[in-house]
């Protein structure tokens, strides 16, 4: 497998996560449920939760497994729920966390599912936001990095399951 071109180093990622946590902390409390979008959001969500804890915010954790890409490089245009929420959200604030904002389909569907589960308020945080040629149904509340329009891997992002564990973000194009 080819080594991706490094776009964002591990240290730069850590700095951006800390900055995001500082922006998010005043908007959440210990009853807030952070909802990680699996599987790519796991790396960012874990780092974000630790960064929030360092700021005295001990949010709760849940996960939602949505699939819109499969092993393809382009969205399939639909979202499949592979594993639903486990924690009650009725009347609570929710923070939906994902690795990359591309088409907006996964984030939009996750926000809808969380609202339907009774969340009183839904905030969204993505690490990387890619440019898109058309308006998307949702805009994230918090963005760590305005990414280029390239095929990203690392820090949870993958190419057919490979490269997710890279500690940096790279491009394969």
Strand proportion: 25-35%
Spans of 5+ residues with little confidence (pLDDT < 50)? none
The CATH architecture term is 3-Layer(aba) Sandwich
Cα-atom radius of gyration: 15 Å
What's the helix count?
3
| Basic shape | globular
Q: Separation of termini?
A: 13 Å
Number of domains: 1
Q: What's the β-strand tally? A: 9
> What class would the helix/strand composition place it in?
alpha/beta
Kindly report the average pLDDT value: 90
Task: Give a quick account of the main beta sheet: strands, pairing sense, barrel closure.
Answer: 6 strands, mixed
Provide the CATH top-level class.
Answer: Alpha Beta
- Widest sheet: strand order? 4-3-2-5-6-7
Helix content: 10-25%
- In N-to-C order, the SSE pattern is EHEHEEEHEEEE
Described by its quaternary structure, the protein is single chain
CATH topology (fold) name: Rossmann fold
How is this structure best described in words?
By secondary structure, the protein is of the alpha/beta class. It has a single domain, classed as Rossmann fold, CATH 3.40.50. Helices cover 23% and strands 29% of the residues. A six-stranded mixed β-sheet has the order 4-3-2-5-6-7, with helices on both faces. Strands 1-9-8 form a three-stranded antiparallel β-sheet. Helix 2 links the parallel strand 2 and strand 3. The model has no long low-confidence stretch (mean pLDDT 90).
